[in-house]
Design brief:
The protein has about 325 residues and is mainly alpha-helical. About 55% of the residues lie in helices and about 5% in strands. It contains 15 helices and 2 strands.
């Protein structure tokens, strides 16, 4: 209800939601409304907020397992079925950032409310483009610093209201809005700066690591889109546990703590991969056979190496940084 009300009226605080709803309704019908017109307006609002298609839309965007029929329909209409950047991917990347739901809802409601077939195709393409911009901004911010919901909640809700209450779907307006959000934060949309930070960054937190590596894995591989974070686990190539370090000769003259969480040292293991045995972390040679048989391309590529060292981590991370700027491009 708060998501829909914010789309209709603009930002409303969570702890004073009902007060904000009353204030917004009074502002719409006037300070001293005619009783009948006021009742009709409130009745219309109550009817709208309970619309089945809007309730279904919110369930779809907030669910960890969105309705595949809806995803397929939207992707077919927007002609993004085989794209590595489509609605399935956007919803996965944004799912953990609830502050984005109001914007996502406002955009997708333009699609669900459109009844003309030809117009629906145009709307779907514009919505997909805007969702791509939103996901790129959120992912870039989360990867190089930290995405703070409190910094964006009001901005996102107020702009969602502008989208919801206008007849068309914004394009350049949405682009300018995201750029303005970026200027107020970390300037992550600058490719040079983004890549520079990524090349030396460390990363913790399973969901964030998975989102990054799955995005990289999908680059240029449309079939890889079937993978989801639920199907994978994070793998530290050079192991986290110090008890395993003696067998890693490439790290004997350095502090392993400086390298274990570097992005270049991270990959993914899927359920289809062989289950590592007790000696798996003993040295790099033990891991190569598992990597070679992996169903995940970025992990399979690691079997080309014959050893692992800080130098290998740095080179791999430079490549990941370049690919990340390409995956989460912004235009």
């Amino acid at each position: 209800m708060r998501c829909w009300m914010q789309c209709r009226f603009g930002y409303m605080t969570k702890d004073k939601f009902y007060r904000d709803v009353r204030r917004s309704i009074k502002a719409k019908v006037g300070a001293k409304p005619d009783r009948q017109s006021g009742v009709e307006f409130v009745f219309d609002v109550a009817t709208d907020v309970a619309r089945h298609d809007d309730l279904e839309l919110y369930r779809r965007i907030s669910s960890k397992s969105p309705n595949p029929e809806f995803l397929n329909e939207f992707e077919s209409t927007s002609k993004t079925t085989d794209s590595p950047r489509n609605l399935t991917v956007f919803l996965r990347e944004l799912n953990g950032y609830h502050v984005t739901h109001t914007l996502v809802f406002a955009l997708l409601s333009k699609y669900t409310h459109e009844t003309d077939g030809r117009s629906k195709r145009k709307v779907a393409r514009l919505v997909n483009r805007n969702l791509s911009r939103l996901a790129s901004f959120v992912m870039r911010t989360a990867l190089v610093s930290k995405f703070e919901p409190s910094h964006f909640e009001k901005l996102f809700a107020d702009f969602a209201s502008k989208i919801y209450n206008r007849k068309d779907v914004p394009d350049t307006d949405f682009l300018d809005f995201i750029k303005e959000c970026d200027r107020k934060e970390h300037n992550v949309l600058n490719d040079t700066r983004f890549e520079s930070v990524m090349k030396t960054a460390t990363l913790r937190g399973g969901p964030k690591i998975k989102a990054l590596l799955l995005g990289i894995n999908r680059q240029g591989r449309p079939d890889a889109i079937i993978l989801s974070d639920a199907m994978c686990s994070v793998e530290h190539i050079f192991p986290e546990g110090e008890e395993h370090w003696p067998g890693w000769m490439g790290f004997k003259d350095c502090d392993g703590n400086e390298w274990k969480h570097r992005i270049g040292n991270l990959t993914l293991l899927s359920r289809a991969d062989n289950r590592p045995g007790s000696k798996f972390n003993g040295n790099f040679d033990n891991k190569i056979s598992v990597y070679r048989e992996s169903s995940i391309a970025i992990t399979r590529q690691l079997s080309r190496h014959t050893s692992w060292s800080p130098d290998k981590i740095e080179k791999r991370q430079e490549k990941i940084a370049e690919l990340a700027a390409r995956v989460w491009s912004f235009s």
